[in-house]
Amino acid sequence: MHQHQDGIESALKDTRGYLDKLHNEISRTLEKVSSREKYINNQLEHLVQEYRSAQALLSEAKEKYQQGSGGVTERTRILSEITEELEKVKQEMEEKGSSMTDGAPLVKIKQALTKLKQETIQMDIRIGVVEHTLLQSKLKEKSNMTRDMHATIIPDSSIVGTY
């Protein structure tokens, strides 16, 4: 029994020595990995900040787009209502115009129709301008985002081989 105990103790000493060496190697490797991680994080910090800034700008652009889009939708709805009213007025004019013999009210109605048509055309132009401005803003934002992304990708390729 003493013989087995001595064998176990000697094996334990050998094993403990190997385990201590393994522990030391693992500790050094972990320190190297931690050091490398800190280095990489420091090297990429400015890119992370640029990315966050770009995300903030994108959020603002999306919010502006939603607001502009809502304005266009609202104006389109108003235009639709005005067009419906115009059709009703035309219908009423035709009914009353055929029964009336006096021409003065008919002239006033025609003038009102002409004015409504002009206002409708102006509303269409305004809607077109808003849509154009919104599209230009979206295209500019996309161009800026693409340019920023290309600008951040090019420096990365020069860093890759330095590890």
Automatic annotation (TrEMBL):
Signal peptide: none annotated. It comes from the Eukaryota. It comes from Micrurus spixii (Amazon coral snake). The keyword Coiled coil applies. Its main location: other. GO terms for biological process: intraciliary transport; non-motile cilium assembly. It is found in: Cell projection, Cilium. Belongs to the IFT57 family. Residues 44-99 form a coiled coil. GO terms for cellular component: cilium; Golgi apparatus; intraciliary transport particle B; microtubule organizing center. This is Intraflagellar transport protein 57 homolog. Keywords: Cell projection, Cilium, Coiled coil.
